[in-house]
Structure formats: structure tokens, C-alpha cells
Amino acid sequence: MLRFEVRTISAEMMDTNQGLPLVAPRVVPVLDPGFRPAVLAVRAFRALVDATPGAVPIRLALEQADGSVFRFDSRVLPDSHPQAEGNFTFIERFVKFLLWSRGGWRIHVDGPASLVARLAAHYRDTPTGKFDAHLVGRRMFDHPLEVVQTHDLPPERSETRPLGRHLEGCRIGFDLGGSDRKVAALVDGKVVFSDETVWDPYYKPDPQYHYDGIMDSLTRAAAHLPRVDAIGGSAAGVYVNNRVKVGSLFRGVPEDVFNARVRDMFLDIRKAWRDVPFEVVNDGEVTALAGSMSLDANAILGIAFGTSTAAGYVTPDGNITSWLNELAFVPLDYSPAAPTDEWSGDYGVGAQYFSQQCLGRLMPAAGIESKADTPLPERLKQVQALMLDGDRRAKKIYETIGTYLGYGVAHFASFYEIRHVLVLGRVTSGPGGDDMVAGAREVLAVEFPELAERIAFHVPGEHDKRHGQAIAAASLPSIARGQ
Questions:
Q1: Is 208 exposed, middle or buried (CB count within 10 Å of its CB: 0-12, 13-18, 19+)?
Q2: What band does 293 get if pLDDT is binned at 50, 70 and 90?
Q3: d(Cα 111, Cα 114) in Å, to the nearest integer?
Q4: Which of 83-97, 129-143, 147-161, 285-299 has the lowest mean pLDDT?
Q5: C-alpha span between 405 and 287 (Å, rounded)
Q6: Of the four, 74, 255, 261, 368, which is 20 to 30 A from 249 by CA?
Q7: Do 402 and 440 contact (CB within 8 A), yes or no?
Q8: Burial class of residue 249, CB neighbours in 10 A (0-12, 13-18, 19+)
Q9: What is the mean pLDDT of the chain?
Q10: What gap in Å lies between CA 146 and CA 103, rounded to an integer?
Q11: CB 251 within 8 Å of CB 197
Q12: pTM greater than 0.85 (yes/no)
């Protein structure tokens, strides 16, 4: 069992974020004593509201372009309460989590007019709010983001659907990450070839780089098959009918070029492969699918620690949803001093805690030096090599990430029905991955014993960590009978 500094909570250990009380964790991240977990702040605020006469109910509904609606209820303090200033911070962080985990373009709110007006102003006027409004509203759901005050919320409605698990025939699966792309060739579910290629897609302005890289991987996989019956892929972003709505891999492409050459890139790739059954899906969903297939279990939240954070969810009945599950952007640390995400500009969001970015920012705190221009994959290799040598500094990094993971999963459990958490991605390779999971289990045991009894953590074997995503992706397309 890992050893952590465990502290009891006292009044001196609480601070605030624009009026919202923050609570120091009992299990302190060894390299980040200023960490203030979202789950503890939410729990403390709700306890305060429950103990306050005249608490004000708030009802929320997120509406998607296909008519799906997700409903949530909460409560805030009355305006007369001395800590009512924290109401907006609580609601803004809560809605941000819903926006990036569920998704939608219209936010219906039945609550105090002053809070609704501030929320609308946040998405209209602030840099971080405008980022969320643009990417989620306009780019993902093709509508300007709206915040609507109403007493008449639409009823909840949504559908789930099965994903993948087709293994017959000769298939190619690919997985596009921020630092490498993986590909696998399968014959009736048996892997006959797998490969990993380093690339650097994030800031390339010409999408020909992305197209050529993907085609290169597919061509090398196809060389090991007698024919190609289907191709499935996973990549960070949002994909609808194989069209790219938003993709972090293409963040360096100007918007006009994105619309002209990226949006239909996978349709062009399918055409180049004679229109075989082809399916590309968010990498987080394939992460969860890979876990479900490997464990033969459902109610799985998969979290991939890559260049950024990918996540996906398989429901208790084995299906996926229309949810975004973009946990790279959800708030996990409510401290105003939390690290800032370089893309969204927001503080304390998942990409800074479950990724190579996190490992890179913790290196100086651990006393591990690297040149300022060292790429994240090289920094990761440096830390992993130190771990193999038994370096205590490297171990502290993984212990810290494990603490983050425990508090993060406890927060996710308020929004997802979770029985299994699959932890994978390049960061988890080697002995550090085991330290991460041990740290997460310790957090649940200390702070959330009811979750510790219910949630199991799983770390795939080394081959599955590195290639399981591509293998699961290969199972995405169905092949028509007789094809």
C-alpha cells in the first residue's frame, strides 16, 4: 500500500473560489499540496445548502441538436446567506461539467434570474466561456450556444446504441493520438500485425500531413491481409457519420481549411479504400469499448492518459450514448491557482491531470530537469526510465497522478454509473501505471469507502495498453452478409 500524507479537515484548511468554500483533500498529492478536488467542494457546498433553511432549487436541461435532453436538479443558497456569493461558481463549474460530459447547444435553466443572467454572460463575454460556446455549440452541435430561463423544461429523452464488437473478416483498426498513431490488422479477430508510428499532428496547418500519415498506417496494415473488408478508427474529437465536427489533432488547421479539407477527410479516406465499411469514432468511446470487450463487463468508464485526456463510457446494458464524454475539459480542481489548459484557457480541467501534459508539469516539482523545448513524449520516456531505475522523484509523479485519479473518479461517479474504471494510455506504461491505480484506490478507501466497495480499477497488459485501442477500433464497422 502506498503511503500518503493524511490530514483531518479543519477550518484552517479551507479556502474559497469566488465565495465557494474549498476543502483540502485528506490524501494530499505529494507534489501538489494546493490541489482542491471538485468532488470535495461540491460535497461541502451541498452539505451547507442542505443545512440552510430556504435553499433555492435549480433545474437544468441540456438539449442536443437531435432532440436528446438531459435533466439535472440542484439547489443553491438563498441570497440572504453570507456565503451566497459562491452560488455562481458552483453553478458555472457544474454546468461546464455537464456541457463537456453530456453536450448540448441549449441550456434550459429554471432558477434565480440573476444566476441565469450571469451564466449567459459567462458564455457570451468571457474567454473561457466563449471557447466552450464555440466548440460545443457551434462546432459540435451546429448552433450558437443558448442559455434560456424557463419554468417549462423539456422532458428528458435520449437513446443508447451498441458499438462495435464485430470481429469477422479481414479488418484494419487505427487509433490517432497526439504523439503517435497505432494500427492493427485482424483476421477473424486474430491480430496478424500491429504497429505504432510517432507523429506530431497538433500544430500542423496543412491537413495533407494528417491524411498522408493515416493512409501510410492503413497501407502498411493492409499489406498483411489478403483483402480489406472493413476499417475502423478512433481519434480525439467529435465525429458524426464519419465527418469531423471537432478534433484536437487538427487544432493547427485554419478554420476555412478545416471546413474545406478536414471535415470530410475520413469520407475521402473511405473512398480511397473502395468504400469498404468504415467507421471512425471518438477515441474515448473506443477506450471504453476496448475495456468492455477485454473484461466482458459493462458500466465502464475508460480513461486514456495520452498527450491529452480521452474518455468513454459503456452503459450498464453494454451500449454507448450520445454524450460527449470530453473529460479533458471538465473541471477537476477548483483552486483558482490550478494549472491552466493551454487550449481552452480554463483552470483545473482534466487535460492537466490525466495526460502527458500533467506529467510534464509535475517534473519540475519533482526535481527532474528537462530542456524547455523537450517534447512531451520524450519527457515521458525520461520519467519512465527513472521509474525503472527506482528513482523516488519519478515515483512521486505517479503517486500524485494517482491521487488526482482517485478524486477525479469520485467526482465522475456523481455523473456516471460506474462499476469499472479502465486506465490506459502511454502514461500508464511501466510500473508507474500500477502506482497510479494504487493511489486512486487509496483515495477511495480514505475519502469514499462506499465507492471503494463498488468501483474496480483495471490496467490492461502492456500490449493492450499500446494496441488495444486499434484492435477495438477494428471491430467498429459491421459487414453486410454476403460481402
A1: exposed
A2: confident
A3: 9
A4: 285-299
A5: 17
A6: 368
A7: yes
A8: buried
A9: 92
A10: 13
A11: no
A12: yes
